[in-house]
Amino acid sequence: MIVKNYNAKTFRKEKVKNKTALQEELGLEVNPKAMMLGVVSRLTDQKGFDLIAYVMDELLSSMDIQLVVLGTGESQYENMFHHFQNKYPDKISSYIGYSEERAHKIYASADAFLMPSLFEPCGLSQMMSMRYGTIPIVRETGGLKDTVDAYNEYEKTGTGFSFKNYNAHEMLFIIRYAENVFTNNKAAWQNLVRRAMDENFSWDASARQYETLYDKMSDN
Asked: What is the pLDDT of residue 218?
């Protein structure tokens, strides 16, 4: 699979080509309408995999969703993904290990990126996913809360989806909500992608924010 480049203006036509190419490569059902959920992570409790394990059957059996996982970590989670890949071979693909090439393909192909961490002082994956126009679904903790602006359908704002409590069904609820927007409100989803891709987490942006803060303090 050759990853096709795209930007905030061209993602509507180009990103889906990456998705269908990855579906074919991984043996998933080739279906651009199914929401592809990406995970690139260490497979540990800290990253929220106990929540994912609790609702895996419900997630895969009741939603038009595909799950593409890359990571290594605790054996219980490695074994869990092997089990569910055997049970739902057309809906989940897991790679136990690390591959920079495959990580790049997941970021460039998935529609959303799941990161339900128990705690996350900073977090880079959610920022990387936004640069790729892959909408983060996160728990509101630490750097995830600081960097992902929760979608508001009434104000038409936000760069991702989030949930507050460390609870598996609260996570599942917000995944269902994201899938509903993806499926039934394409304009809202495309605007989410544009806002996410326009986010600027560079040090230049941080320096400007500090400069503004210092100016306010000196005025007082």
From this structure: 62
Alpha carbon separation from 14 to 65, 82, 194 (Å, rounded) = 20, 31, 14
* DSSP line for 165-182: SS-HHHHHHHHHHHHHHH
Give the chain's mean pLDDT.
92
Cα 56 from Cα 67, distance rounded (Å): 10
Q: How far is CA 181 from CA 111, 152, 188, 206, in A?
A: 12, 11, 7, 31
Give the tens place of pLDDT for each residue, 105-141: 999 999 999 999 999 988 899 999 999 999 999 999 9
Global pTM? 0.90
34-68 residues labelled b (16+ CB within 10 A) or e (exposed): bbbbbbbbebbeebbbbbbbebbeebbeebebbbb
Contact, 85 vs 93, CB < 8 A? yes
